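PROTOCOL LOG
Step 1. Enter all chains and additional molecules of the complex.
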Amino acid sequence: MGRGGGVAARLKDVAERAGVSVRTVSNVVSNAPAVAPDTRARVRRAIDELGYRPNLAARNLRQGRTGLIGLAIPEIHSPYFGELAGLLVEAARERGWTLLIEQTAGSAERELEFLSGRASNTLDGMAISPWAIGTEQLRRHTGGTPLVVLGESDPQGAADHVVIDNVAAAREMTSHLLESGRTRVAAVGSQPHLGNGTAALRLRGMHEALAAAGRTIDPALEVPVASLHREEGRRAMGRLLDHGSPPDAVFCFSDELALGAVYEAKRRGLDVPGDVAVAGFDDIEDGRYATPGLTTISPRKDQIAASTLQCLADRVYGRLDHLPARRITVPHRLVVRESTGR
Amino acid sequence: MGRGGGVAARLKDVAERAGVSVRTVSNVVSNAPAVAPDTRARVRRAIDELGYRPNLAARNLRQGRTGLIGLAIPEIHSPYFGELAGLLVEAARERGWTLLIEQTAGSAERELEFLSGRASNTLDGMAISPWAIGTEQLRRHTGGTPLVVLGESDPQGAADHVVIDNVAAAREMTSHLLESGRTRVAAVGSQPHLGNGTAALRLRGMHEALAAAGRTIDPALEVPVASLHREEGRRAMGRLLDHGSPPDAVFCFSDELALGAVYEAKRRGLDVPGDVAVAGFDDIEDGRYATPGLTTISPRKDQIAASTLQCLADRVYGRLDHLPARRITVPHRLVVRESTGR
DNA sequence: CACGAAGCATGCAACGTTGCAATAGGCGCG
DNA sequence: CGCGCCTATTGCAACGTTGCATGCTTCGTG
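Step 2. Run joint prediction.
Step 3. Record the structure below.
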């Protein structure tokens, strides 16, 4: 029986056509060594003629692997997460994996659903950039599926962890602003209610730099936000400018916040950087083409992606299965553009 | 045997614990009607106690479905495709599907690889936003897996097709520019070498509007681009401004091109919209927060996503299996902001 | 010439699930 | 009281693949 029409060919069909056993075809497909050259050629031809493609469901069932890696991020269309997701898709592809993206919309419920949901047997590995949940909830991850945590929210040994040095980065940015002559540096982006501790670290780095320069810390210049979107940055800048003695520099904890802040400053007729310097964080593409070009912290996103997949590969294929969780710090650099110039 | 430790529970384990057959557990899991209420309750309890989750690989193998939909777009991190991908992920999720995103980087090779690659048996359905390939290559799609084509490149019956009326949209935008007093309208974004015919349609719409207003068409004001990115928009604007008699309005075929164009105009000390009006296409978030706010064409992206999944659902589950391919036109609207104001 | 090794090919079983057909028990009706 | 029908439950087989063990050659060596 040749299984006519559009029905997908199976190993059995190829075997019949090539006049060998199913097992031999399987050996050819999986590049097993013990196959005679002419047999291999004959099988290859049959495969081409029938357009055979392995049935992944069957392979997965047999091997207990799916070839799928899950990624949970707050939203795909945000510039930062979009760029990161794109890099992760490529990195996964290079390793023969397929990346599957889940959006959590920054909701704790959906983040937890991702961690406990399909994980158990649909995915070979998972990566999450947590937003609402923190260390406590990540620690509950019981290891069934390898997990990599991106960004803050230290899983404390419950999973591998890829980060940048947020404290140092914020320190560098703050120092840059102070060294270029700014005296009242505001911070936009603290998020006191979130599990994700990123903002707290950046605030700490900023405080360290202020202290090192002998400046006092003015709590009125630290504006919390509900999200890292442009609209929040715009609102925050508005509040700062309405303040009795407004800042001459604003350090936003994301480029999007910074773009919103710049928008509001310009809307009010202020010059950036003349009247107020604005700096961001993430180095998204928009920042490069904004006027003025946005000064920012640029994390090596490509290395974040590479490290994430390396961690997963080590746990899925390697013998690092029961080694203690790793913590990988990816480098970053300060990119100075016009928005903080003189 | 209870399969201790972290090993995933199977139907068999649940069955033993609940004192029923494997088949009955399966019936409970799939909400089959013929199960006595107390049996159902007992099985449910066992499921919870063991933390049972169905093994999708096995289910897929048995049913011939995977629950996966593939999406191929040029790049995730572009604002337009990022927003679209996010909406599609949500729409798929609502229908119990998982969307898997493939990046083609606008390469014909990778687009074709997507169409013929894993499709045959890993995906329940596919959607592609073609860039380099055109009608000819799409027509070769032989229907194994349901396919939806997004944007131009009419598959001519080989697949369902979701579009906006690019000709009408470009006509509306051009008329808007002419009506607000502009006389020399340039077009940035034609892509003569591409299979994807979107740019050609927008150019046609523009010509129609020019003709309707009794204007002549100046080929020197039509600038081709290699991509739809900001950098290309910037370059194109540079070329137009170096031209002997520069335009007083520039219609860019994407918002990103427009943002690049605005950047270059401002860099040269020109006022937008005072000296030159700039309009885009796509209505990406950046355009809303740019200064000046970007006039654009806003396609109903949510409807594109919804229609795409509706088409796929009809073919995968429904009885529309062998109905002729559909073509769905999604509405759009002209959004006037400051970049074309007076 | 016999024997082991090496190279190649094969058959069987199992992964966890669900479609199909069949069974056991309960009930109403003739 | 017995027949048939309906409900609840069950067993068997199969989806397409690969791990394991084994069989069949052929060749080299003592």
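Step 4. Note key features.
The mean pLDDT of chain A is 89.
Residues 79-94 of chain A form the longest helix (16 residues).
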